[in-house]
Design goal:
Blueprint lengths: L4 H14 L7 H12 L4 E6 L1 H11 L5 E10 L5 E14 L5 E13 L11 H9 L6
Antiparallel strand pairs: 1-2, 2-3, 3-4
Length: 137
């Protein structure tokens, strides 16, 4: 099943915000870090603040936004994990006039400091990419 373009855009926007030091993503980061710290690797809570308002604005629903996070695997680097996060909101209007639940699910690698783990990163390839080199140069 293909995700609707709007859902993909929302997921990409959320991931983009997490990569910044923007205060908008601070609340969501805390939910993600709570899952890293949880003994069972899971966290369930309600998103608040500017990130929740941004999400509600995109969906045109005033319903609360829940966050469910589960740890898929721990990295060797302390405090780092592969996480699956799901943002869930009920009562989202459709073009047809119905109101349905919406879930946006994504995975990411994250450490307690808010950065991705260094494990598995090809630093040489990343450096070439950031410098503007094309593959094979």
């Amino acid at each position: 099943m293909k995700a609707p373009p709007k859902t993909l855009a929302m997921a990409l926007a959320v991931l983009g915000l997490l990569g910044t030091s923007d205060v908008v993503a601070a609340d969501l980061k805390q939910h993600l870090i709570a899952a890293i710290d949880a003994p069972d690797g899971r966290y369930d809570g309600e998103l608040s603040g500017r990130m929740a308002e941004l999400f509600k604005g995109q969906t045109r629903s005033p319903a609360p936004v829940r966050v469910q996070v589960r740890t898929l695997r721990k990295f060797a680097e302390a405090g780092c994990a592969r996480l699956e996060a799901t943002l869930i909101q009920d009562d989202v209007p459709t073009k047809e006039g119905k109101r349905i639940p919406l879930a946006v699910r994504y995975e990411l690698n994250l450490c307690r400091d808010g950065q991705p783990p260094s494990e598995g990163i090809d630093h040489e390839a990343a450096s070439r990419l950031l410098s503007g080199e094309t593959p094979g140069q």
